[in-house]
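ESCALATION

Customer reports they have been waiting on this structure for their group meeting. Please prioritize. Original submission:
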Amino acid sequence: MMDKRWSFAFLVFAVLSGLVLCGGCVAPQVIAPKSASRSALEQELISTALRKSLGEAPNQKLPFSILEGMKVAVEVSCISQSNDSEDSRFVKSLIVEKLLEEKVTVVETGSEEAVLKAVVDTLGTDVGVRSFPHIYLPLFYYITYKATASVTLYAYDAKGKQMGLLLSYQGKGEETAKEWSLLGLGPFK
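Update from on-call: job pushed to the front of the queue and completed.
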């Protein structure tokens, strides 16, 4: 009788130890890295959301045809970053790409006929983690990533020939991804 209890206790201990060892290896990272940089998945989601906000979503077309034939300077303002951040440079390069597709001449500040101002209202990701039984011992976890980008574009005459805005546009894009793991197997997309 005593032997069966010790055998059962050893079996339970071995199974729980195995789960602890396997589960800890796949524990999702739920804090930001010290460098505050984004993971590749987050960058991909943000890039896709930003492209959608700039007219690559269904039923969205940027009204850049009004600027055709003009010399346009592009300015970008991000709400949470300096104007010379990686985010603002990326947004500017996407906008310049769209302008060039519409045959708009892009120039540096000083010789422009019009200014296209991009205000990035939202640019980031939200991460939701559900873990069972605990984040440090995840027998099962499910993570959702949601990237959101919201951009407002204004164009105005730099020389004051025309009063008011030449164009006003507001776009929003979202992109999501999910991953999960069960008993140390995965992550699965």
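Sent to customer with the following note: The mean pLDDT is 81.
Escalation resolved.
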